[in-house]
Amino acid sequence: MEQVKQAIEAVNSIFNARSVAVVGASQDPGKMGYMTLNSIIQGGYEGDIYPINPKADHVLGLRAYPSISHVPGPIDLIVVVIPAPYVAAVLREAVEKGVSGAVIISGGFREAGRSDLEEELRSISEKSGLRICGPNVQGINYVPNKLCAMFWPLVTTPGPIAVIGQSGTVTASIAEWSEFEGLGISGAVNLGNQVDLCESDFLEFFAEDEKTRAIALYIEAPKEGKRFQETLRRVAKRKPVAILKSGRTAGGQKAAASHTGSLAGIDEVFSGACRQFGVFRADDLEHTFDSMKAIATMREPQGNRLLVLTTSGGSAALGIDEAEQRGLSIPPLPAQLVEELKEAQSIPDFASFSNPLDFAGANIENFTEALPILDQFGVADIYLLIFGDPVPGGAEAVEQLAAEISTPLVVSYLGGGELERLDSVKMQISGIPVFPTPDRAARGIAAAVWNACYR
Amino acid sequence: MEQVKQAIEAVNSIFNARSVAVVGASQDPGKMGYMTLNSIIQGGYEGDIYPINPKADHVLGLRAYPSISHVPGPIDLIVVVIPAPYVAAVLREAVEKGVSGAVIISGGFREAGRSDLEEELRSISEKSGLRICGPNVQGINYVPNKLCAMFWPLVTTPGPIAVIGQSGTVTASIAEWSEFEGLGISGAVNLGNQVDLCESDFLEFFAEDEKTRAIALYIEAPKEGKRFQETLRRVAKRKPVAILKSGRTAGGQKAAASHTGSLAGIDEVFSGACRQFGVFRADDLEHTFDSMKAIATMREPQGNRLLVLTTSGGSAALGIDEAEQRGLSIPPLPAQLVEELKEAQSIPDFASFSNPLDFAGANIENFTEALPILDQFGVADIYLLIFGDPVPGGAEAVEQLAAEISTPLVVSYLGGGELERLDSVKMQISGIPVFPTPDRAARGIAAAVWNACYR
Q1: Which of A6, A356, B18, B35 lies in disulfide reach of B47, CB 3.0 to 4.6 Å?
Q2: Cβ distance of B350 and A438 shorter than 8 Å
Q3: B73-86, pLDDT tens digit by residue?
Q4: pLDDT per residue as tens digits for the range A335-375
Q5: Do A167 and B360 touch (CB under 8 A)?
Q6: Which long-range contacts (CB under 8 A, 24 or more apart) does A65-73 make?
Q7: Which domains are assigned to chain A?
Q8: Residue A236: CB partners within 8 Å, gap ≥ 6?
Q9: Considering only CB atoms, which chain A residues are within 8 Å of B108?
Q10: pLDDT-wise least confident of A180-184, B60-64, B164-168, B346-350
Q11: Which of B243, B310, B321, B435 to mutate to test the interface with A (most CBs of A within 10 A)?
Q12: Which element (helix H / strand E) includes A310?
């Protein structure tokens, strides 16, 4: 357990740093040294920020220093954006200064044939205890500390999902979707060449992190296979983890190997291990996002019975197809319940009183009248509300319903234009997951049910 | 062939109407009679528009008439948005006036237990020759005639895809995505209760329509099974068709049946028929859109060899996984080609010179230098360019490349924020399909290859 404690402390010292120096801070908006410093400032970081640049007095309005050792106050974290050959010297200077953590964005190490430079970093870290994320990363973002030390993207919306990725772009895309949809993230990190901190360290941190409800992990091959296995087994007991792993096919394995230089292992064995540990293995990138969204946002479902309420019969049929294929059950409506629904003022006589309960029209009152009645009968464990075309007042009504009833609500909103985009964000901000198609909603719900049953 | 000719003429008389009356045109923005008239006006329709409303002199700035018979000029098409019990009388009046087509948006017929009212419409159509789309539809949109006679959505961007749907929402969502992404549509129609015109009629029309390059069809159960089969077989020879059909599972079949009141048939048999006819069967709603986008936009691939060029190694691994699983081949790069690539000025030494060709950085010059060299060697039938994170200048460069080289280009753009959204639209407007993830790109490409091989 010493290793676990050390991992959490190491990541914590980086994510919760109280002061940051950006080594290689630049005034040129096209450079990573500009983008990174800018992200830290725009992200609202409240600690001290020290741009390091020997040729400038000020960078982005902040007083700059020629080197780390010139900085008057203490530095917790350095973010390094200078050419690879100069990084080791900076790390040594940082050790002198008492810095505890480094995020090395700079590339040009092992991935560029310079394993020697990388070994130097590793050696400094091992000897000094300086903890390193990277090199060759886009950076780290820990929203609770408002520390977006990442050249891209700038994500500032606090949310329940942590993203760990062995690819900057994959990490960025999930984080960016979360931001765009109003869902937000707790943190994001990419692994890069992992001279020190690796996937297991970040998993340990997020497993204990109060702001994180679920972890999305993109991986090609773990740095430390055996430790990864043990970590996953333990972490998955505490928190939901969804893994997206490339290497399902020979070509994918080769591609992953040429990206990170490590063997992907046998894919079926990996799937088996995930099942055994209670780790959710996602099918693709959107499925990773959708399943994490559902798991992290929904109230935990108490079973697998899904009731679909819809304004669109066709969309409901598509959603139920996917739901059944993913193992959800579609219970019928008891006769007495149907009677009560028929008495509801707003629900038209020609509605289809079955599952799906098809109101055949985009009238939000249908939902607000029906749901409390359904809830009394306890007929399902999850309600999927399908909004087809614009549904005025939808977001407000769903927010209120979610507060009134105990069964988890999920929304699929499609064909709704600008109102769909605005209301989807509103609902997600208030904690109701929204999916752009009924198929994707069903996949997300199935992930949440899986998580409730098997984790 | 008489039936085919009649079908095309019937749909043509509606889609290419030179004058339109909206029966039930309303001044209340919340009503369908307002939304429909508004769509026709905003869509830029250039023929005569006659609002019919006995209580108003003007609606939406246009002179209104108390009834069809009061309209001074000829009327080609009526769009009906009045309560079901009054529709038959209006149709009789329309027949008197010499109207040839009707789009009946009004609901409240068979789906609401009033089969009697629906039979009346059918009888009028059969006796008079008046051709009807509906009732119980969102309407029709034929962009070449700038005729958006649909209460929702308003789609005005001309594009290569026609959408036919047994669900207003499914039709709306595909049309709306096409509009949002700059891809556009040729036409969209939903089938509703099909008292007269049905799926086969619209398929016949779009098969001959010059503006339509591919047809997306959402269906629960065809109205005329045997004719549908014959039509599909013939239409698929002329034009690519992607079908999304609900009813893969028992629950989905039940849901579809309760929506349209017809049996869905045995799912495997349907899949077999699609394969035999060369009709692409899509897995889900996004897959329908993605496959149609690829088929309608890409140059036809001459084989199944895919070369991935990427700024993101992780994304490439995910794309190649999906591509191999969908039957695409991932050819290696010949040694001589690699030599030439290494000599290219912009391509870094540490790039991964294999397939994927991983530039390991978001520099557009890498692509513009590499692609013409690759094209000389004829190493692949399709190039998938993966842009991870923002790639400044990407849209312009891709547009130019597409003009210079003969091999079809497809782009996957992810993690790129606002630039991604803007540039994706630009590229799609210029005819290059863009997908939000490498998985979806691979699925789209596989559909285009399938279409080139098996249709």
Answers
A1: B18
A2: no
A3: 999 999 999 999 99
A4: 999 999 999 999 998 899 999 999 987 689 999 999 999 99
A5: no
A6: A65/A21, A67/A93, A68/A21, A68/A23, A68/A93, A68/A94, A68/A97, A68/A99, A69/A93, A69/A96, A69/A97, A71/A21, A71/A97, A73/A19, A73/A48
A7: 2-294 (3.40.50.261), 300-454 (3.40.50.261)
A8: A277, A278, A279, A455
A9: 350
A10: B346-350
A11: B321
A12: strand A306-310
From the list A256, A316, A437, which residue is nearest B285 (CB)? A437
- Chain B residues in contact with A255 (beta carbon < 8 A): 308, 313, 316-317, 320-321, 355-356
In angstroms, the Cα distances linking B149 to B175, B221, B300 are 14, 25, 33
Over range A19-36, report the average pLDDT. Answer: 97
Contact A105, A138 (CB under 8 A): yes
**What whole-number distance in Å separates Cα of residue B64 and Cα of residue A173?**
52
C-alpha to C-alpha distance for A100 and A17, rounded to whole angstroms: 9
Mean pLDDT of chain A: 95
Mean pLDDT score, B96-109: 97
Q: Where are the alpha helices (DSSP H) in B279-345?
A: 285-297, 313-325, 335-343
Q: What's the gap in Å between the CA of B215 and the closest CA on chain A?
A: 18
- Is the CB of B259 less than 8 angstroms away from the CB of A323? no
User: How distant is the alpha carbon of residue A79 from its chain centre?
Assistant: 22
| Strand runs labelled E in B81-223 | 101-104, 131-133, 139-142, 147-150, 158-165, 185-190, 214-219
Q: Is the pLDDT of residue B264 over 60?
A: no
The confidence score (pLDDT) of residue A185 equals 98
Predicted pLDDT of residue A235? 97
> Nearest CA to CA, how far is A318 from chain B (Å)?
5
Percent of chain B with pLDDT over 90: 91
Burial of B115 (0-12, 13-18, 19+ CB in 10 A): middle
Put simply, the answer to whether A111 touches B360 (Cβ < 8 Å) is yes
Q: A264-268, A270-274, B241-245 — which is least confidently predicted? A: A264-268
Average pLDDT in the B432-454 region?
A: 97
Given a contact cutoff of 8 angstroms between Cβ atoms, the answer to whether A102 and A77 are in contact is yes
CA nearest neighbour of A247 among A166, A187, A305: A166
Mutate to test the interface with B, among A32, A174, A321 (most CBs of B within 10 A): A321
Q: Min CA distance, A180 vs chain B (Å)?
A: 8
* Residue A265 banded pLDDT, cuts 50, 70, 90: low
d(CA A392, CA A384): 18
Quick: pLDDT tens for A185-241: 999 999 999 999 999 999 999 999 999 999 999 999 899 889 999 999 999 999 999
Instruction: Give the 3-state DSSP-derived string for A371-431, with helices as H, strands as E and coil as C.
Output: HHHHHHHCCCCEEEEEEECCCCCHHHHHHHHHHHCCCCEEEEEECCHHHHHHHHHHHHHCC
Average pLDDT of the segment spanning B83-107: 98
* Cross-chain CB nearest to B220 (options A254, A284, A317): A317
ipTM of the complex: 0.95
Are B173 and A321 inside 8 Å of each other by CB? no
Q: Are A11 and A201 in contact (CB under 8 A)?
A: yes
- CA angle at residue B335 from B332 to B336, to 5 degrees? 125
Q: In B, which residues are within 8 Å of A325 by CB distance?
A: 248-249
Segment A17-31 mean pLDDT: 97
* Inter-chain touch B318–A349, beta carbons under 8 Å: no
Using CA atoms, how far apart are residues B233 and A431, in angstroms rounded to an integer?
Answer: 48
In terms of CA atoms, which chain B residue is nearest residue A330?
B251
C-alpha dihedral sign at B222, B225, B229, B235: negative
**Chain B residues with beta carbon closer than 8 angstroms to that of A260:** 313
For residues A266-295, average pLDDT: 94
Q: Mark yes or no for CB contact B251/A323 under 8 Å.
A: yes
